Amino acid sequence: MTDPNYLALLERGVPHWNKWRQENASHKPELTRAQLDERNLNQVNFSQAELIEANFTRSQLIGANLSLCDLIRAQFTGANLRHASLERANLSRSCFADADLTRSSLQHAELTRINFQRANLQGANLSQTILIGADFRNANLTWADFGKANLIGADLRNANLSGANFDEADLTGVDLVGANLSGANLGKANLTKADLTHANLNSANLKGANLTGADLSQADLNGTNLIEADLDGIILRN
Description:
Blueprint: H1 4-11, H2 14-23
């Protein structure tokens, strides 16, 4: 249950809330299922807060601090989280559909089964995150950093991954059908049994990548670097 005292503090505005957090650093606010939709929460400090199933639909959270928060099944549909910090937060099964997370930091976050459909994650830091079964369909992930991330079974169909970094990431069994990976870095990535049908890999770096059993049918491989890549059992149907 949400503690009404915390909501009352929030109602007095972000500056008052942040001042209280600074003076009461040992407190971990309990805001489970809080209805915080369509609010201006720019620069708010929610670090280490309990926000399970909280609703932030269409809220402004630019530069917000959500690091180390428990945000399981939280709703961020259409929210603005540009430059927000979500490092080491638990966001399993949360929804960020149509949200703006441009240049946000999610490093080391737990993002299993998260929904990022149509979200803007341009330049976001998702390195060393757990993204098992995540949904990135039609998302903008240009220049995003997925270094050493775990994306086993993730859905990246029709996502824009141009210039993204997947160095040493685990992309086992991912669906990249129709994805734009032009100029992306997939060096030493594990793409075992990945589906790259119709993907754009123009000038992508796959040096040392594991593509065992991957489907590259009708993919654009113009200028792709496949030096030292494991191509055992790849599928190349016309």
